[in-house]
Specification:
With about 300 residues, the protein is of the alpha/beta class. The protein has 2 domains: about 160 residues, Rossmann fold (3-Layer(aba) Sandwich); about 130 residues, Rossmann fold. It has a 4-stranded parallel β-sheet with strand order 2-1-3-4, with helices on both faces. Helix 5 links the parallel strand 3 and strand 4. Helix 8 packs parallel to helix 10. The mean pLDDT is about 95. Bound molecules: ligand FEC. The site of ligand FEC has 20 residues, from helix 1 and helix 9.
Amino acid sequence: MSSQSPLGLLVMAYGTPRSREEILPYYTHIRRGRAPSAEQLDDLTRRYESIGGVSPLAEITIRQAEGLARLLNEDGGRPVQLYIGLKHASPFIEDAVEAMHRDGIEECVGIVLAPHYSTMSIQSYQNSAKAKAEQLGGPKLRLIDNWHMNPLFLDLLADRVTEGLRRFSQPDKVTTVFSAHSLPERILTVGDPYPAQLRESGEAVAKKLGLVHYDFAWQSAGQTGEPWLGPDILDKLRELAQNGIDNVLSCSQGFVADHLEVLYDIDIEAQAVAKELGLHLERTRQLNDDPAFLKALQSVVRERESRGEAQ
Ligand code: FEC
């Protein structure tokens, strides 16, 4: 095989319903085939309605993936052929792997558009890709586990925090709260690295900026009847207010796009709680398809490619 034959670039992301009709199949897929109750479905539909009916995530994922592929195809390295695979919407990860196989792609680098590794997040994306590639007998997968400590990503996150702090009259009095999507507490029993990775990237940004006031929280926990990782960001806001803090910058460092978990959970839900508490709450801008973010992803992909060999 020529070294210049295209490398498959598998960009994996969460996926979102593209219309009101797609909310039910999407939610059922998230719940591993169990349909939500009418009440749960209404509640989710209401949340989508309050951010304009659909999430911008579908469009942003495409812009991120295509922008990344463009950079990789212009950097003089091995050309790539892009495949987008979603976890909970079509085209699914399995569809993307199947398309690669059909197109004769022999090797692929797979990246998930989420920085921190968890058995319940990145590993499940990877398991879907691996199972399909094994079933078909290819392509060979080089999967990226996490990229939360990529220096370009950390620089960009630090820039976003600096920009957010400037929105306050006294930036040195602001507490920055780093958050990521909560997960069921049972991940801790398998030594899941997710909480430590959230702390690691948050601490790295805080150190870079010399932040004195910063904290960590979880957001967007599901209502599944089992305990989820805490403290939840809404409780964290209450705790901070109780301790006399009145300026908070939220940095949802576990997410890289504007979507429901930011546009609703932070901009509407957390803002409402902040208002009740008399807190001034701002949030950092999401990375979306910022060229600096795509450059960070490009370096992550090239680095993984250079380490070679499958899995
Ligand atoms: O804008 C959009 O339409 C999609 C936004 C969206 C993102 C996202 C990211 C993550 N999730 C993670 C874990 C879970 C677990 C459950 C769960 C449930 C939902 C529901 C919606 C939803 N998630 Fe999500 N998630 C997004 C949206 N998520 C909608 C269902 C209703 C609800 O609870 O609000 C619980 C499953 C269960 O019920 O058993 C667990 C993790 C991430 C971040 C990493 C990643 O992007 O993969 C972890 C974006």
